[in-house]
Amino acid sequence: MRDCSEFPGNARSCKETFRLYAVQLMNNEQYQNVWNSGYWDLIDRITADTGRYSKHDPATATVNQEVRSYAVTKDAVYFAFRDSGACISILNVKVILFNYIY
């Protein structure tokens, strides 16, 4: 999370969240209006829990790590991140798939 004071125009506040979405498809399915928000499942609204990065004091920087679970029941899954003006940067994304056969 960046310190809001570093933004031009002296931003008094900045958003501290982004949204994580997923959509599942079967092999024979086609995307239909992929940008329709009703098409995607909202997994979570993710917030910056701790730490702020400031170019004036880089020693105070911390990196948040968030873990989310999502059950995949179809052949394919796509993930999307929606940021509406947040003061954040996504540094790394790791997707781990467990395939349980019963």
How would you describe this protein?
With about 100 residues, the protein is mainly β. The protein is about 0% helix and about 25% strand. The mean pLDDT is about 75. The protein has one domain: Sandwich (Jelly Rolls). It is built from no helices and 3 strands. It has a 3-stranded antiparallel β-sheet, with no helix packed on it.
Please identify the structural class as seen in this structure.
mainly beta
Residue-averaged pLDDT: 77
Q: Class in CATH?
A: Mainly Beta
CATH topology: Jelly Rolls
> CATH homologous superfamily?
Galactose-binding domain-like
Number of helices: 0
Low-pLDDT parts are none
Architecture (CATH level 2) name = Sandwich
The shape is elongated
Q: Sheet with the most strands?
A: 3 strands, antiparallel
- Give the total of domains: 1
Instruction: State which percent range the strand residues make up.
Output: 15-25%
Within the largest sheet, what's the order of strands?
2-1-3
Q: Based on DSSP secondary structure assignment, what is the total number of beta strands? A: 3
The end-to-end span amounts to 42 Å
Taken in chain order, the helices and strands follow as EEE
Helix coverage percent of residues? under 10%
Radius of gyration: 17 Å
Organism: Onchocerca flexuosa
Membrane topology: Single-pass membrane protein
Protein name: Eph LBD domain-containing protein
Keywords: ATP-binding, Membrane, Nucleotide-binding, Receptor
